[in-house]
């Protein structure tokens, strides 16, 4: 049906159990609660007035981001911070997607490369750090609000919750508008934007735009993938429901509900282990070899049954005496999805790109989770291992920009599990912090589209250096791609030195690499505190911004975990290495002038912004960390 | 346990180190038993045990031993073998011994092979072994140690991934248990004990030793005994002139010394030291609450023209500005810097602009200002 016809004829809207209507375009009806407002007689008893409610709104934005998970949040915030007027459309009542309080999945990333993390920096780092400051108690629902705060505090960003982007209105090969239904206000929004970014996972908006996509598993031949099946098929990894228990300190009985599906563990593969079952079992998973989106409600019901069945087995089989005093404390009702549509870009990332560490000139993100392909059938195929864990990376791999925009819809980008990649590549890149990096990349790219009036493809072809440089400035990391920003005045300084040095060197702060990696040290570390770093210019410069990257120990994970693990690899608090208190001075006519003070720093990327001033030197005085005896920096930048 | 004689390959590899001086002259050595409390990550509660300190005829601790268990046993599923561990006097693990006739076991009752004993020795001797970062429950639940398991995105359930080179296949639990005995809490206890047992002469030897660990042991002990007298200060200066990596702990110690000793140390480090020693001395003098006489600072300023870097020059000028402003001698020493390379010249200029100058000096400073007015 053409869009115009949709408006004129009206469409049947069935209000399902949830608040989101399901539009069946082929079945027009006069009972359209959305558009046929003339029959809706709102009568206000207080005023005695009757009227027709207006439940149609049109809004205009530079960039519309669909989906409020890690990828969508980072896409929206990066676009907004880089100057675009942005709307973030989220179909759930909370942000966070799989990591939200609705689902409880750990926000994993490159958790473990040869025993250490290689943590994602940029916006996702900022989010995870903010959570460590504002959510010391590690509450999932407080985490939702940390994400909410992270989004709503952005002045250029409008957040629409409980809003489903349902259909694209096209103009040629461009999306002109997204039709979005906000269930809580019974309002149909028409969101017009220059650029659309679908980070929704399932990608309904992108699909309705006619963007090409694929589902299922590629056969071995297509991309010469070692771990792909011999022949292509339709299998998509499943969704999982999590359960969590608490120790009541006394024996607790458990009776399964009527919808529980009996579980015996008979014939189960030995790798279906129960370690950490108190916090949920990831292999309670059901997928599909056909239309996994259509199957969702059926699979959700099954998953609830399996989840209670497995818990019944744990509680009542006698095999888990340690579970005697445990009781379910939180049970998921909304499964966390792994896979459905994968949209086609100008490039499709496949297994060998990752395992052979292909270098992409347009690299904008990276990953390093294992090739963690779950078995076909999920819990309904018990004799298989729950995941094959085909391959463990020894270093991170790059992800190219060409896989993050549509090959046939000119103003559409995507980030998250729905990007242009094979099923096997997805098995690694689907991890949320990796998706978040893609999100920051496309959000930043969208701001360039907006500034330069170009398409995403043109950003890739003509402005990739600008995109990469902006990402690096905003603390993203691109493997083997040092920053080299010609506007950075720190690089033009005549001298840089630290007051003391216990490792690295102050000159490393200008080398464009904002982490220690590939066996190279790229930091300066003081010998004790207080300490300072000073830059000198032979001729005065106009300065209004100084930006630092401090150490947050990115070799140790900081995402919130249900077990609150706190050891060498996982931390459950603010990293002690992080710089807490610092001040900035500029030298004007031979005298040091205060340019800024930060007493409780909460970010890795630390920004000072001030009225433009002419200086011949700056001095960064650092007096406290969150516990480490030395302070470590990775970068200093200066801008006019 | 001392009589246990089951020796393995490592004894063949390094026989002289462990066998000859000790076994042959046992009567000249004294063993002192210390009750210690050790936290082991595989144990819920702290473990009370005995640490044996072996002193030579001079009362110097030369090595330590402790009897431990090979495996922390849960649900009675593993065999426990007593093991004796040996450390040197800085807490570095040296070797292990088993009781005669005892053998270590792997999963499912497989016995250790000869090469497994050698590998265990190399694992225990690596104080950065991956076992440092492994949880015991990761080992207990994953018999397959070769990396075929991983972490799933959803629950974050972890399974152990160790390279074969980092573990004895089938005996990760033994490796984990013994590694933490060998490299855990006990190391700090040994260092502290070595310091306590050392005589003052031995502490001076420690300060001067090439191995910096001895230096740290000595300084901890000197601070605990509140010994800040000349022999220790002199030894510390001597050490720090050669080894800049210990500057910070050294200065923490020196700053507690009496004023004369402190000033002597700072001057020596400033005059004789390299850049890092000079910077440390200047920084300390600038920040210290000790009395720093103006005459003393005047003398230091005589060296300003010998300084090799902007940073040293700038810090010296900061020190003079804050503790010895308007000194004629300092001004006289700094004036020639106006002819130095530009950054240093400009720094000198700004220093001089804040001093009370005579007419000639004012003229020179003004001339500099006029010449470089676009670069100030």
UniProtKB/TrEMBL annotation, chain A:
Record key words, sorted: 4Fe-4S, Iron, Iron-sulfur, Metal-binding, Oxidoreductase
Please name the GO terms that the record assigns under molecular function: 4 iron, 4 sulfur cluster binding; metal ion binding; oxidoreductase activity
Q: What PROSITE patterns does UniProt report for this protein, alphabetically?
A: PROKAR_LIPOPROTEIN
Q: Respond yes or no to whether keyword Iron is given for this record.
A: yes
Q: Tell me which InterPro entries the record gives.
A: FAD/NAD-bd_sf, HdrA-like
Q: Which Pfam families match?
A: FAD_oxidored
Name the UniProt record assigns to this protein: FAD-dependent oxidoreductase
> What organism does the record attribute this protein to?
Algibacter mikhailovii
TrEMBL record, chain B:
What's the name of the protein?
Answer: Uncharacterized protein
